[in-house]
Specification:
- By secondary structure, the chain is α+β, with helices and mostly antiparallel strands.
- Helices cover about 40% and strands about 25% of the residues.
- Helix 3 packs across helix 4.
Length: about 190
C-alpha cells in the first residue's frame, strides 16, 4: 500500500522483501478491512479530545474507500469481498454495547448497528456470545490476493520489487540512505520501514 501510494504520487519506488510478497501476516491474516483503533473511538476521544479523535477515525474511514477503489481500479481479484464485520461481546451487557454504538455513531458517524444476542448466536452458530456491533461499512476479502494485486500495480507504475532480499544494514551516506542487502544496495533520499 505504501509503495503504491508513493508510485501514484510520482515517486521512484524500490521495494525489497526479505521473503516473498505477502509472506507471513500481510498475506495470511483474517482479511478484515475495518475502521478504528485497538483502543476504540470513544477511548480515543477521552484521551485525545473529540476533534483529534474524529480526525483519526476519518483517516481509517478514508482508508477503506482507498482499498475498495484500488480493488476496482487495478482489477484485483481478492474476492469474495464480503460487506460487513460483526464484533461480538463475551459479556452479558446489552446496555453497554448499545451505549457504545450510540456514542460512536453520534460522535463519529460510523453507521454501527446493534445486533441482539439471538441474531448474533444464529449468525455465529454458537451460544458463547452475547450482543454485537455490526459495522456495515467494513468488509472482508482475501488479503494474499489483494497484496499480490498491489504488487502488480506497483510494477505497472514503474516500481521495482525485489523478493528474497533481506535488508542487512541501513545507514547514511552523505544526505542519502543506503539499504544494503546480500545482492546489492539501494541508495535513496527516503526509506520506509
Amino acid at each position: 500500500n505504501t509503495a503504491l501510494g508513493l508510485a501514484e504520487r510520482g515517486k521512484k519506488v524500490v521495494l525489497i522483501e526479505s521473503r516473498r510478497i505477502g509472506w507471513g501476516a500481510s498475506g495470511r491474516n483474517a482479511g478484515f478491512v475495518a475502521k478504528g483503533y485497538a483502543a476504540g473511538e470513544v477511548a480515543l476521544a477521552k484521551k485525545l479530545g473529540l476533534s483529534h479523535a474524529r480526525h483519526l477515525v476519518a483517516l481509517t474511514k478514508n482508508a477503506r474507500k482507498i482499498i475498495k477503489k484500488r480493488i476496482v481500479e487495478f482489477d484485483i481479484d481478492c474476492g469474495p469481498v464480503i460487506d460487513g464485520v460483526l464484533t461480538v461481546s463475551w459479556r452479558d451487557n446489552p446496555s453497554d454495547v448499545q451505549n457504545y454504538i450510540d456514542e460512536a455513531n453520534r460522535d463519529f458517524d460510523l453507521g454501527f448497528e446493534f445486533w441482539p444476542r439471538e441474531r448474533v448466536r444464529e449468525h455465529c452458530k454458537t451460544q458463547r456470545y452475547f450482543d454485537g456491533v455490526y459495522s456495515p461499512n467494513d468488509f472482508q476479502f482475501n488479503p494474499l490476493r489483494y497484496v499480490h494485486g498491489l504488487a502488480r500495480a506497483v510494477t505497472a507504475k514503474g516500481g521495482k520489487i525485489f523478493e528474497h532480499t533481506p535488508a542487512l544494514k541501513i545507514f547514511r551516506e552523505g544526505k542519502s540512505w543506503v539499504v544494503q542487502s546480500m545482492h546489492g544496495r539501494v541508495k535513496a533520499q527516503h526509506i520506509v520501514l
